[in-house]
Structure formats: structure tokens, C-alpha cells
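Worked problem 6 (solution included).
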Amino acid sequence: MALSGPQHYAAADRLLAEIEAVPTMPDATETALSVRAAAHAILAAAAAFALANSGPDSQAWHEIAGTRLSQ
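Solution. The predicted structure is:
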């Protein structure tokens, strides 16, 4: 499933809220959700950084993110 940067951010936020909502969550479940949230947060940050810069790979980043490179 391909997600955009904002969608990755929202997924991380949703997973963290899920962890906070269940204070008696088993440790293994909490760890698994935390790892997934961290992965989504890292991908959101990578997308934000890549799309905000205009380096030699900027066009490739915009294509993979499904956004247009503003000229």
C-alpha cells in the first residue's frame, strides 16, 4: 500500500493514539504498534524532506510521491 507523506503521518498518529487508548495493552502488542508508528513517522519525515528540496533526485521523489514538481 503506497501512502503519501501526510498519510504516513496520519497513520503514525493513529497508531500512537491506539496505544494511548488501551492502558492494559500487552507489551508485545504495544511494541509492535510502536514500531509500525515509528516506521510511518520516518517515511513521513523522509517525504517531507525530499519534497521540500530541489536536488538532482527531486523529480524522482515527486513522481514516486504522486505530486507535481512546482517550477
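Discussion: The chain has a mean pLDDT of 84.
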